[in-house]
Prior knowledge:
single chain; alpha+beta; Alpha-Beta Plaits; 4 strands
Amino acid sequence: MRILDQPWRFEGHHNIQRTDCFRIVNNDQVNVHLRLSVGACNELVERYPLTKSYILETSDPHYFDFQCSVNSQFFGLSNFILGFYHLDIEVIAPDSLRDFCGRKWGR
């Protein structure tokens, strides 16, 4: 491979897209807000390490807040919520995520 001093050809055809903390590439993202128990928080970070920087402590030492932008189809996040529902995960926002999980859950 040689690096040339010429400008890029077809530079206008390059398409840069956003990647969320679940490693899903999609420019169509929505902001989500979850309340997680300690166990849910630990599981989230273990399975998806990039989520760690979006987790905040709360006044209750038994819970954490998770807030960030994710792909609008909720890939990755919905797998986590539905797979670990027993760990006390509360969807605070958006309503579309709550509805999506309810439909998948069969409610």
